[in-house]
Amino acid sequence: MKKTIKRTFRVSKYVIYKETLVDYKEHFWSFLGAFFGIGLIAFIQSHQLLQAENVFLIGSFGASSVLIYGAIQSPLAQPRNLIGGHVLSAIVGVTVYKIVPDIIWLSAPLAVAFSIILMQYTKTLHPPGGATALIAVSSTGKIPELGYWYVISPVLSGCIILLLVALFFNNLTPNRSYPTHNRFMKLLRKKHTHRMKK
Predict the structure, then answer these.
(1) How far apart are CA 168 and CA 164, in angstroms?
(2) Angle of CA points 188, 25, 161, to nearest 5°
């Protein structure tokens, strides 16, 4: 038990140290990624979807941006977690809202708790997913009317936009590499070397 506590303390100190180092280049790329990721979603909502009164920009995307642009090495920021966490949580949120629509003191905790368990079970834990589930049960107006379409738009479509921007901005410099999953990076390198040979 003591070994585990000491190891956890050492790892925590290292992570805090690494995360608090001031690296202006890293901050610059994090800023650009977040600006363009959220900006693109906001642009689509304000210019393309205004007449349809659709909601394309949800609050949990802001929290996802912190992870996928600012903490790109985190296991919680990887593409599987980003998309899987949001989509599964959206499904849970809509389902809970359909079963318990008017009892917010019951539907809100059920949606968040079930979404956490489902993300843990599927290894897609992404903290903003809890907010996505909560938005589905606590919002008024357009979101409850969307039903399961909420899962497709804004959740899945928004996640794809954020991911594409993250893949671009997080791989522009040799110091940043996203995602950290080895299989994905090997596949990208393999395709790149195959094109270079041609």
Answers:
(1) 6
(2) 50
pLDDT beyond 80 at 64:
yes
Query: Which amino acid belongs to residue 67?
Result: L
Question: Which residue type is seen at 174?
Answer: P
- Cα 131-84-67 angle, rounded to 5 deg: 60
Task: Indicate the range of 25-29, 139-143, 181-185 predicted with least confidence.
Answer: 181-185
pLDDT in tens, 91-122: 999 999 999 988 999 999 999 999 999 999 99
Using a 10 angstrom Cβ sphere, with 0-12 exposed, 13-18 middle and 19 or more buried, the burial of residue 165 is buried
Question: Is the per-residue pLDDT at 76 higher than 70?
Answer: yes
**Mean of pLDDT values over 8-20:** 62
Give the Cα separation of 54 and 157 in Å (integer).
13
Where does 48-156 have alpha helices with state H? 60-65, 79-99, 104-121, 128-138, 142-146, 149-150
d(CA 124, CA 118): 8
**CB burial of residue 32 (10 Å; 0-12, 13-18, 19+):** middle
CA 92-67-88 angle, to 5 degrees, is 15
Q: For residue 140, what are the CA distances in angstroms to 36, 134, 143?
A: 28, 12, 7
* Phi-psi sector, 147: left (phi>0), alpha (psi -120 to 50), beta: left
